[in-house]
Model the fold of this input.
Amino acid sequence: MDKSLKYRLVVWAVALFLAFLLPSGINSSSQIQKTSIATAIGLDKSENELEVSVQVVVPQPGSNYSPKYVIATAKGKNLPEAIENIELKLGQEIGLAHCFVIVLGDKVCEDNLASTLDYLMRSNIMGNNSALLHTDGKAKELLEQSSKLSESDVNNLQHIAKYNQEHYSSSNTDLVSFFNAYASNCPFCVVGSLNVDDSNSSQSQEQGQSQQNQGQEQNKGGSDQKVLKNEGEAIVFKNGKKLTKLKKEDLNNFGWLDSKAQKGFLILEHVSNDLFDDATITLHIKNKSVNFSASLENNIPVLTANIFFEAFVESIEDGKKEITGAHQNLCTQDFQEQIDKKIKEQISDAIKLSKEKNFDIIGVFNVFNTKNHKKWKEFLQNLANPEDYMQEIEVISNISMHHKL
Done:
């Protein structure tokens, strides 16, 4: 075959290929035109309907990464219907693959949350490691406030939702962990709580009113000056429903029995010995670990917690007004005993609260069921109500401290 003929055939083949395929490629919409990327979703209860709010990323032109967020909201009988109604408003599908947090309004937590979230687990439309976050008010308001702060990455919801677990307590629960707990024999989990603080609004409003030359619009702007408030609180869920709220102090107490919490602080007050006179000493706790052993003695379940950690002196406030040398050994026998006593008091308070509210967030059930299954099963069968097992638990703690004091 002539070379020129071969060349013409190749050219015609390429031309026909482009003629059929190029128009469809030009006319088809890009992924970003068809899909709205959601970074957070909020759930609120509105009468007999579910109100869903989605935090959507709006791309901004420019060389620097400075995202803008908008909140899209719709109601529905359930989560799929509400999301569909949001998509109708936006004219785009909602992409939840990058949704890093699910904010739960307080009222939606009064019902069985597992039924509400079931769609997100079964549909496989979002990452299963999305963190759950509770708020006393409405999830929509929290997302709106977060969107205003997001450009400078201040109080980012993702960072706040994960901070407690990585540092002080495991009050961060993701979607899979929630359902694993819900389906287990120990159906308890802890979800961190975050709120919108509008305490500065009235002050800002008064300042705006005193500046009459700036008009009414500034006064309105002042009333919108709110911040996110993270006080280290959390919600205990039982069988998918809100049971009670824990304060930061409560979580710190439970942290000694939490294998995931590796860092924290311990404040000792009224320390008096040869070195100190009514001193307040703050210790920084690092590399904490805890392992459990379980036994049933005379049909009484005894949980032994073996706790190890490293301690560093962060600050000393001493009534003697004397400066203690930085390299001086501060960890006397008496000081160690005070540390041991303080930790055991905090553990005792944690167990007391567990019995009062009848919850098990440290996994006592799982420890006994794993380490002493047969006797544990018999123990539960002898209880009038097997769910009341925490009322019979006794805890012994062994403290081992490696000090750099």
